[in-house]
Amino acid sequence: MIPDQHAPAGPGSADKFDDEHYPGYTMGRAAEMLGTTQNFLRSLDEAGLIEPQRSAGGHRRYSRHQLRIAARVRQLVDEGTAIDAACRIISLEDQLHEARRRNTSPHPVD
């Protein structure tokens, strides 16, 4: 019998690929995917908008969710918004979205 080459490598490993919060991207790869610099990603960390996880060696690791947030900031910066203002805008948009979600939920969360 030939082993399935698409089978997960171990218990729970397939879940990592489906988890948008799994920190699967190095800083270099994340910057490359976003078409930006590593300094841009560091500035988002310093602003408190994105807090990447750290590898055992202390290197920043980003999730797909964090990369989507960084892409939103990058779009605003490319349109001429200062990075600190762009971070604040994204933060406020997320707070508004969460408030709307709670207000439309059939069972409000305390």
From TrEMBL:
<feature type="domain" description="HTH merR-type">
    <location>
        <begin position="24"/>
        <end position="92"/>
    </location>
</feature>
<dbReference type="InterPro" id="IPR047057">
    <property type="entry name" value="MerR_fam"/>
</dbReference>
<feature type="region of interest" description="Disordered">
    <location>
        <begin position="1"/>
        <end position="23"/>
    </location>
</feature>
<dbReference type="Pfam" id="PF13411">
    <property type="entry name" value="MerR_1"/>
</dbReference>
<dbReference type="GO" id="GO:0003677">
    <property type="term" value="F:DNA binding"/>
</dbReference>
<dbReference type="GO" id="GO:0003700">
    <property type="term" value="F:DNA-binding transcription factor activity"/>
</dbReference>
<dbReference type="InterPro" id="IPR009061">
    <property type="entry name" value="DNA-bd_dom_put_sf"/>
</dbReference>
<dbReference type="InterPro" id="IPR000551">
    <property type="entry name" value="MerR-type_HTH_dom"/>
</dbReference>
<protein>
    <submittedName>
        <fullName>MerR family transcriptional regulator</fullName>
    </submittedName>
</protein>
<keyword id="KW-0238">DNA-binding</keyword>
